[in-house]
């Protein structure tokens, strides 16, 4: 027999950090259900979906049949009930198990497409669009961003004017998630020249004359998410497709920004958690200079710092989600949670690629995918710069601001 390996170089089981603190028993079970679903339905297919540039429509039905599509939506509207924290538990499970950013964005685009209809829409709109979406039969998207406006929601120029019993819509939208596969777009339109007070939300179905997907966009990451540029050329839809009150869309959109930003924060620390676990396993399995990578102090220090940042981002994000569920106003806090988590995701993904070396730069390496996917997070849902300035004003730090 050869010499026994030193304790320092002895092989240990790969470290897999799977946080459980902060969840109730029911939420932990929901998280585990998401992870098991991923192993069964996602892991064998995700590489092909990334190559295809979209996920199959039937995946929505699969999610719905598993009871995972309507979590957080009241049962009276066709959902499965639950809180924002329940949604967080579900999606932490998905991300920890290896979902891509594009898969998450496309599979759950209804998280931004239908809340405005649920909260403010007519029974007809809810029955026509919300219930079929939650059953997995339809796919919806939200059309806010325009080529020249970006995060400036109040500056939207797509216009809708009344003509008899119809709206006539002209304009364009950019970077719209799930719009290529989508069956309808909840579209933000200008219905008055009164700035932020002159916007309305109108449901525009696919196939309406004059409404087209101008092009499917090629992106750095989020490859499994179909993202489109939309054109509205004298598009006519019934006046009854108006969501809530005319000229109230800015408030409707703003009210849902908090949950969207918490969701993006969760995606951020979820990517980071997955990258941490992939890097830890690789560093234990990979031998260099006659010993595993993890035997090097500098490598262990990187892994510890990655873990520290993941834990901080997760704790802060979930604390803000809890406070939201408790009825607190957490607009500024959601902005800061998003920045904390997405900055963590960008740094941890970068370190994971570095620890993988050349293999981390290869498309066959999962960390390479996460590296590309996380780069969108400081931009989407309000850029870090815009949200930091918003938080400064809300917290009373800007000139003339009232806390």
UniProtKB/TrEMBL annotation:
Q: State the family it belongs to.
A: Belongs to the acyl-CoA dehydrogenase family.
Pfam families per UniProt: Acyl-CoA_dh_1, Acyl-CoA_dh_M, Acyl-CoA_dh_N
Any one GO molecular-function label of the UniProt entry? acyl-CoA dehydrogenase activity
Kindly provide the name given to this protein in its UniProt entry: Acyl-CoA dehydrogenase
Alphabetically, which GO biological process terms does the record hold?
Answer: fatty acid beta-oxidation using acyl-CoA dehydrogenase
Upper classification of the source organism reads: Bacteria, Bacillati, Actinomycetota, Actinomycetes, Propionibacteriales
Q: Does the keyword DNA-binding apply?
A: no
Residue intervals of the Acyl-CoA dehydrogenase/oxidase N-terminal domain:
24-137
Using the record's annotation, list all stretches that form the Acyl-CoA oxidase/dehydrogenase middle domain.
142-235
A GO cellular-component term linked to this record: cytoplasm
Q: What is its cofactor?
A: FAD
What does the UniProt keyword field contain?
A: FAD, Flavoprotein, Oxidoreductase
| Source organism superkingdom | Bacteria
- The Acyl-CoA dehydrogenase/oxidase C-terminal domain is annotated at 250-393
